[in-house]
Design brief:
The chain is α/β, with parallel strands linked by helices. The protein has one domain: TIM Barrel. 36% of the residues lie in helices and 19% in strands. Strands 6-7-8-5-4-3-2-1-9-10-11 form an 11-stranded mixed sheet, with helices on one face. The chain starts with 6 loop residues before the first helix and ends with a helix. Bound molecules: iron/sulfur cluster. Iron/sulfur cluster (SF4) binds next to loops.
């Protein structure tokens, strides 16, 4: 029986949603903390840009679509080597920006150490240039990199990416988000120190405009400018125990991962993640999740409205199940407490 007043299902109906495309599960790394369990043993399969375009077109006139897109993986840039669509990543970014969406592309930047670097840098710069206009150079596109102890050679790759993007760009500004974990924030200071040695002009900027002259370590809220054409942002996240991260000591246990599909912040949004295995999952990281297929048995994409309706149904079922289990747990706990009280009374009478 469905939970008629499921608040979690209601959230999917009422709140705006972000679409995330986990374009592949393949990645050349096998990081021990990977919440997607992505890696080199995963299939080199990619969601085609035609399918992604199909879903953007279906969503674009939906007032509930927040017009925020995320392109990620696995490692999305591996498409340059293994996917049969030329200009795949460039096409996706243009598709997002041409449709008036903001886009965040996540990469581990491992390709900076390979011969693919030239074509990838060229494509990124082309996209930025094509969408920049002289009076307003900042476009709604962000590149997200990781800086932590788990990603191999993250420091070297990040510095290379930032420095090279700055060198190649002529008429645009690139926003780069560096995400790290609380235990690894010293790596941010180290990276900024190294960037200052390699680049002419690296300084913090105030969120409210102007220049911040305080060159001390980067607080989370600061943004930094590199050579006037790179804006660095920082986000410090929590290491959740989804995917392979469940084997990492001190990874934070998510109590109810199936309901963590709302982005933190105000106002909240629903994260709807399409993956290369043909599923749509609520929420970005792994764990016990609410999932329905996005493709039919013949491989054709299902209508977005049907996917949303099925996600609502699944969420209501999951909430019902959670309420049932939680009620049972509390009843069992209360019975145990009562038995203990009776035993204590019995023992004290015996004495
Ligand atoms: S954490 Fe990122 S870089 Fe590491 S295996 Fe997963 S997708 Fe690849």
């Amino acid at each position: 029986m469905l939970c008629r007043n499921s608040s979690a299902a209601g959230a999917i109906q009422k709140l705006p949603y972000i679409m995330i495309f986990k374009t592949t599960h393949y990645c050349w790394n096998n990081c021990p903390h990977c919440c997607e369990s992505a890696g080199a043993n995963m299939p080199k399969k990619y969601i085609s840009s035609a399918i992604i375009e199909n879903y953007i077109k279906q969503a674009i006139n939906d007032p509930k679509f927040s017009k925020d897109l995320v392109f990620t993986g696995g490692e999305i840039m591996s498409a340059y080597k293994y996917h049969n669509e030329p200009n795949y990543v460039k096409n996706l970014l243009n598709l997002a920006l041409n449709n008036g969406c903001s886009v965040d592309i996540k990469t581990n930047a491992g390709w900076t150490l390979t011969p693919m670097r030239n074509i990838i840098f060229d494509d990124m710069v082309d996209v930025l240039s094509a969408h920049s206009i002289s009076s307003f150079r900042l476009i709604p596109m962000q590149v997200s990199l990781s800086l932590d102890r788990f990603h191999p050679h993250a420091m070297q790759k990040n510095i290379d990416f930032i420095t090279e993007m700055s060198r190649r760009q002529k008429n645009s500004t690139c926003v780069i988000n560096i995400s790290s974990f609380g235990q690894d924030t010293d790596m941010i200071d180290e990276m900024l120190g190294k960037l200052r040695k390699q680049n002419n002009d690296v300084h913090p900027i105030s969120v409210f405009g102007g220049t911040n002259n305080n060159m001390s370590p980067a607080p989370q809220n600061d943004m930094w400018s590199v050579n006037g054409n790179i804006i660095l942002r920082f986000s410090i996240g929590t290491l959740f125990d989804g995917g392979r991260a469940k084997n990492i000591e001190n990874a934070y246990h998510t109590p109810m991962p199936q309901f963590s599909f709302l982005t933190p912040g105000n106002p909240p949004k629903v994260l709807m993640a399409f993956d290369s295995f043909g599923n749509v999952t609520l929420g970005e990281n792994s764990g016990k999740k609410i999932t329905v297929p996005w493709r039919n048995k013949d491989g054709t994409p299902r209508p977005l409205n049907n996917i949303k309706r099925d996600l609502e149904k699944q969420t209501a079922i999951e909430e019902e199940r959670w309420i049932f289990n939680e009620t049972n747990r509390r009843v069992a706990q209360s019975i145990k407490k009562d038995i203990n009280t009776v035993l204590i009374l019995f023992k004290s009478k015996k004495r």
